[in-house]
Amino acid sequence: MCFIRLIERVSCRFRSCDPRLYQIASLSTLLAYGLLWLHFDVSILQIALTFGTALLTQYAGTRLYKLPAFDPLSALVSAAGLCIFLRTNSMAVAALAAGIAIASKFTIRWQKKHIFNPTNLALLVVVTGSLGWISPGQWGQAAWFGFLIACLGSLVVTRAVRADVTLSFLGCYIGLLTARALWLGDPLTIPLHQLESGTLLIFSFFMITDPKTTPDSRVGRLIFTLLVALAALGVQFVLFRPHGPLWALLICSPLVPLIDRCFPGSRYDWARPSKGELTPPLSAPVFVPLSIPSQQRRVS
Amino acid sequence: MSHQDYEACEDGWAGSRQDPHMLNMRLYVPAVLFLVTLLLWNGTASAFCGFYVAKADSKLFNKASEVAIARAEDKTVITMANDFKGDVKEFALVVPVPTVLEKAQIHVGDAAVLKHLADYSAPRLVEYFDANPCRLLYPESRSMDMMGKASPSLQREKALGVSVEAQYTVGEYDILILSANESAGLETWLTENGYRIPKGASSVLHSYIKQNLKFFVAKVNLGEQAKLGLTHLRPLQIAFESPRFMLPIRLGTVNADGPQELFVYFLTRQGRVETTNYRTVPLPEAKEIPLYVKDRFGDFYRDLFAQQVKREQHRGVFLEYAWDMTWCDPCAADPLSGEELRSLGVFWLEPQGRPGRGPQAQNVFLTRLHVRYDEAHFPEDLLFQETSDRANFQARYILRHPWTGQDECTAAAAYREQLYGRYEQQAQTLATLTGWNIGEIRKAMNLAARPTRDENKWYQRLWNN
Predict the structure, then answer these.
(1) Which of A14, A208, B355, B416 is the most buried (most CB within 10 A)?
(2) How large is the ipTM?
(3) Residue B413: which H helix or E strand, with range?
């Protein structure tokens, strides 16, 4: 009983925190594991530059777009993601990627919502420009490690109330990969090997789950993840190009406003994590004092 | 970080790793970040990688196959080395290919060029000689800087669902390009036509057929071989255009007797190549090892590789060499000439006016990968990507000869004092890298016979107890 009460107390305490704090902690742990154990070829200078530029761009954007407050958390999440994925020999490229990621949130927008996942967009711009590269095989196939990511990640998505995105994407992706293996007559060790990818798990738990760039409603999110899974397999097995999931997310992101229009839901706010259900219409009129700003712009 | 260890000994490193735009960056990134990060930045540079002593030949490994892949803009030329040792009548090769190849897309290469490529990129042993400490102001720090871092009847074919898309004789080889509707038919056809297909290959063939791959099948034409007067089989080359950047290894793993070795040499325009579905790991490099390894470098490298395979749980692909083809330092062999590179399929190089050796090649980056694979750990074919990484890497191991002069000075005394610690460090490095017994290493190094003066505790030395 005492133990259950302790867990409840701890979870109550954490429920009050911003979900992005969990994301930052999880991504930092993964980065540290990669650096210390797998010897990722990322210098301390690159990490510092990525974080520095991301925060600076966020600050510049906050001032330029006159946002009510400087919110560094999303910038930190994007920077940590870039450090985990991006490899480059040029420090300027590391800074450029961080700048592109954060700047895209302020500039590429549709109906007060940014369209692309910042890290995803920056990574693919840099890779397309041959300025850097992504090593999808860098985590190896250590099963326990995948499990660790899954645990850390699920914690994040549960807090971000976007666990449905991870589950439906992984469900579609695993289902389609298995179906392909069965059609080809391949042993199931092949789809299993394809799933034992740290990069895929990080993508599923940390990137596609961004509530700001996924549809607002649950139905919308299910449709979106199915499209991303199909596109990812298309890139890999029809076009024969690497980074299938990353390209798939980039291609499908512009469809989010359309999905939101067909299946509306409530807009996500980091301060008040929600599952996206629309608030029921109020029966009685509500009077709003004139002193409260009617709409505060939030870019995070 | 591995790259950074050897960076210090390359002239060309500055162009790839050190960023020429760093100064500009400082203009718009807060100075505080730089104060912290610049302190962590190690920018030592020296232009000396030691004298080349020996290389680890790919023949050290049993059941090793060698493949060279030249690729740019989806245009691919694959050279398959042939070290078939048995009766040439027995030789047969079945390779899944993405397209039906025309005769002009098949070529017979020169084994010597492939051998040159293997020699040029082999893991190497280099040696340094310590200088007289009495004549150097900072002998130790200086030396540390240097160390740096497959003729069937038509009816039978139809019955089996196999069609011979094309048939050619190229050099000493009879070549068929097959397509098939189903794997059992293809397997029967191959068996009836004298190709030994391992049991269980049917499911792999089925998978390749479904993926719309064709089969490049080669046998030796004994008459042509006799006419050519050849005693060995030359490498087969195929050229095709396909977005698929992969190497089919699954047929080789079916019913294989133990793991197999594969060396893949990539010649690309942009930069280093790595696997996307397996972890590519650079081998340990720039390690200082005991002098006696000079006569046992083959054993050393074989055991080092086995240790690394174990460390990566038999699932790693290892980077042995990544270098711009224009130069090498130290050179295990001269860089390949433009003509040699073109013969390996580097189509983007313009033909040279006159053949010659030396550093003429441009825009060619060589990546050498070494993989030990079996069905259990490598269930899927190898998939690759070309990165924009042009940082140089070589599996290089160092022998450091002590100075043996008789001069007496304070620096010489201090130098002799630290030698034992250095030998012990080398012994431990060797034991860690190869898994060899530390006791035997010490014995071979004659370490036990050395004075134990350095083993005194600091306080014993303080009061001369």
Answers:
(1) A208
(2) 0.83
(3) helix B410-434
